[in-house]
Amino acid sequence: MITEFSKQAIIVAGVVAALGFSNPVFAATATGSFTVQITIQSSCILVSAATLTFTSVGVIAANDDSSSALSVQCTNTTPYNIGLDAGTGAGASVAARKMTGPAGALVTYSLYSDTSRSALWGQTIGTDTVAGTGNGAAQPYTVYGRVPPQTTPAAGAYTDTVTVTITY
């Protein structure tokens, strides 16, 4: 006669056999490794440069000051210089940039690296550029502009394009 204990033992033995525990199979493993690498080179990019917009004026009888922002990103510890060229206006220089308007008329303006507008921002390293050292993240800079009093040309929109050069 089969006892209750015997029934349980038979059921357990059947389940173990069905699951394959009667012939255990052992898994084998092997390991290895590989190298991961990257070479970071000194590099800089111009992340952004906002439009410098002066106020709308009639007669240019007083200084018209404005500012805009640009952002530079360089690899960590990379020294760099930010230069701004004279722009595309006819006869422009770093000291007297020119916005061109209707019929080739010009409005003179200057760009500075300081709030007092005393340090012209140009493109000669060691003279009138802005120096920095990269930290790996975008670094902001403010460009300060001024349209000085001058003979007012014809009404209309005046523009110029200034090239930003990052030397590193």
Overall shape: it is elongated
For the terminal residues, how far apart are their CA atoms? 94 Å
Rg, alpha carbons: 36 Å
Beta-strand proportion: 25-35%
Major beta sheet, strand line-up: 1-2-7-5-4
Using DSSP, what is the number of strands?
Answer: 8
Structural class: mainly beta
Q: What string, H for helix and E for strand, traces the elements in order? A: HEEEEEEEE
The helicity comes to under 10%
Residue ranges: pLDDT <50 for 5 or more in a row? none
What does this structure look like?
- The protein has 168 residues and is mainly β.
- Helix content is 9%, strand content 31%.
- It has one helix spanning 4-18; strands at residues 44-49, 64-74, 79-84, 97-100, 106-112, 130-133, 138-147, 164-167.
- The chain is elongated and about 95 Å long.
- The N and C termini lie far apart (94 Å).
- The model has no long low-confidence stretch (mean pLDDT 91).
List the helices and strands and how they pair.
Elements: H1 4-18, E1 44-49, E2 64-74, E3 79-84, E4 97-100, E5 106-112, E6 130-133, E7 138-147, E8 164-167
Antiparallel strand pairs: 1-2, 2-7, 3-6, 3-8, 4-5, 5-7
Keywords:
single chain; 168 residues; mainly beta; five-stranded antiparallel sheet; 9% helix; elongated
Q: In brief, what are we looking at here?
A:
The protein is mainly beta and 168 residues long.
